[in-house]
Write a structure and sequence with these properties.
The chain is an alpha+beta fold. It folds into two domains: 4-127, N-terminal domain of MutM-like DNA repair proteins; 133-261, Helicase, Ruva Protein, domain 3 (Orthogonal Bundle). The protein is built from seven helices and twelve strands. The structure holds a DNA duplex.
DNA sequence: AATGGGACCTGCGCGC
DNA sequence: TGCGCGCAGGTCCCAT
């Protein structure tokens, strides 16, 4: 699913291919993904604007079009962006650029969102968002856990606590650190929180290097799959032997989300 | 503060 | 083969 590494991959690739381009035309195939404004208003406000900056915050992409005009894209579960010469299946909105290419917003489940706002920092999700893990020292990461009694895995994926981590990377991080996903945060000593930090940072960086994980519909900007999926250690490995201790990986619902873990070596 | 449930939405894999 | 069903997950919202 699009989590921090997938969205960061897209941002890096957009910076090389879309930054500085002018949006000449917008083709709206499915207006449901455009929130807050009508298709007509959306088109009239965005057409003929140049992409001045592309920012990522957590799992959110922000295109700066003018000082008080930002295009905010959230891919949610099944969204992806695809730069191509033609329209593709499940692509709901196409931004035709001045170099003839089309930036397609694609989304099979139509839960993704495109918003047009004058101040992106004011969005509730952004305003309440926790720190970026890749901009955080180990010391400050450990501090976040003060007085937190929630289960570690749902806590890691709480966007108000920490930005950009979702169901998959939260599981990978606690597996790497040898911590059970249902351990209460305040029952984990600082040294182990430090291990979660080291694991998480390493996993996020490595995934960005490999263009993210294409577990479901996610693709890189050029349509290729992300290559981190092959390096996943627990996610979707139910019934298979643990890479560390050979015990059988279990799947259980924790915090209302499917969670894979090793019952033997995650304590 | 934390947790649990439902809603949004559709493609997919399953059982019969 | 074809149908119905449950499931997947990011975020929001409501209830406890």
């Amino acid at each position: 699913m699009p989590e921090l590494p997938e969205v960061e991959t897209i941002r890096l690739q957009l910076s090389r291919n879309v930054l500085g381009k002018k949006i000449k035309d917008i083709v709206v195939d499915d207006a449901r993904v455009i929130k807050g404004v009508s298709k007509t208003v959306f088109k009239s406000k965005v057409e003929n604007k140049t992409v001045k900056n592309i920012i990522r915050r957590g799992k959110v992409l922000i295109f700066e079009l003018a000082d008080d005009l930002y295009l905010v894209i959230h891919l949610r579960i099944s969204g992806w962006l695809f730069l191509s010469k033609t329209y593709e299946k499940f692509c709901r909105v196409g931004f035709v650029l001045n170099n003839g290419k089309i930036l397609n917003f694609c989304d099979s489940r139509v839960l993704g969102e495109i918003k047009l706002i004058d101040d992106w920092t004011n969005l509730a999700l952004i305003k309440n968002m926790g720190p970026e893990p890749l901009g955080l020292s180990k010391q400050n990461f450990v501090k976040l856990f003060d007085k937190k009694t929630a289960k570690i895995k749902p806590l890691l994926m709480d966007q108000r606590f920490l930005a950009g981590v979702g169901n998959m990377y939260a599981q990978e991080a606690v597996f790497c650190a040898g911590i059970s996903p249902q351990r209460r945060a305040d029952k984990i000593d600082k040294k182990d929180i430090g291990r979660i930090y080291t694991c998480l940072i390493r996993i996020l960086r490595k995934s960005i290097e490999r263009g993210g994980s294409s577990v479901d519909t996610y693709r890189q900007l050029n349509g290729e799959k992300g290559k981190y999926k092959a390096l996943l250690k627990v996610y979707q490995r139910q019934g298979k032997p643990c890479f560390r201790c050979k015990a059988t990986i279990k799947r259980e619902s924790i915090g209302g989300r499917g969670t894979y873990y090793c019952p033997k070596c995650q304590k």
